[in-house]
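Case 279 in the screening queue. Each case pairs one protein sequence with one candidate compound; here the compound is flavin-adenine dinucleotide. For every case the pipeline is the same: read the inputs, emit a complex structure as tokens, and attach any notable structural observations.

Predict complex for case 279.
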Amino acid sequence: MKAPDFNYEKPTSISDVLALLANDELDCQLLAGGQSLMPMMNFRMANPGTLVDISGVSELAGITECTDTIEIGAMVRYCELEQSTIIKTHCPLINLVLPYVAHAAIRNRGTIGGSIGLSDPAAELPAVLLALDGSIEVTSGNGVRLEPASSFFKGVYETACEPDELITKIILPKAHSQQKFGFHEVARRHGDYAMAGVCIAQDSDLSIRVAFFGVADKAIRATNVEKLLSGSASFSQDVIKDAQNATSEIEFEGDMNASPEAKQHIANVVLERALKGMK
Ligand SMILES: Cc1cc2nc3c(=O)[nH]c(=O)nc-3n(C[C@H](O)[C@H](O)[C@H](O)COP(=O)(O)OP(=O)(O)OC[C@H]3O[C@@H](n4cnc5c(N)ncnc54)[C@H](O)[C@@H]3O)c2cc1C
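Case 279 output:
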């Protein structure tokens, strides 16, 4: 199938994007890498009146190292993240995860802003942001606000970004040398969306954040699991078993890949493997 008719705009500044978004009559939707939106339009799951292509907005480009944080422009593509020495040095969890995000051809076009703006429950990067306690800079005609990742993802394809707002940056704390990270996912084929996966970040005080994806209506932190794991420098089989029992706090949701029960089983498998592979 082909997409229904739409108007096309390609602004070159954030202020021009915001002016288009503020006009309700245009029924705008942002187009970033198009790797999800174009298939959704072809399948008639999305039917915007006007596509606002933000690929020409240079203010949304680039990865910047700040004193304590890394700022990633919304239009930064996965392939740029993969090649960035700033990301390699200061956000090692992103580097662990990226080879599992879709396929190389999709990573050449897909963007971090598109992934965060879409909020697919099985996508890796929303869980990375939760595990790293990152935040999202959102801009509208009313100004700029910072939304913590913990309150940004609302449900399937639903976020705290309003229709007249634009994600402009992703802000992540720089990793410290004593921090450890873990990641594991299970997918039917490498590059497919995960059946279930987990991202873990452990701080130098041994507090820990555990974020699952592919198990519920959005990427979620498992706070009971975190409580059980916090304070452990290494994870014995008993601690892992207790943590696996605590995943019952999650309201597992089935999808075309697996039932809720199978999701819980896979979540426990990826949790154990990620904990054992922490580095
Ligand atoms: C075969 C296939 C396999 C895939 N596998 C995976 C996978 O394993 N893991 C994974 O995470 N993804 C996967 N994807 C999705 C891919 O990562 C997409 O590129 C990504 O989800 C969306 O990024 P995009 O830049 O293409 O966004 P687009 O498709 O252009 O946009 C996606 C949505 O985000 C909104 N949006 C875009 N930019 C902004 C912004 N700056 N502010 C607010 N809203 C914005 C758009 O309006 C749209 O609703 C897969 C896609 C395909 C086709």
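Case 279 observations:
- The pocket of flavin-adenine dinucleotide is lined by residues 29-37, 39, 74, 101-102, 106, 110-111, 113-115, 117-118, 120, 123-125, 161, 166-167, 193 (CB under 6 Å).
- The chain has a mean pLDDT of 97.
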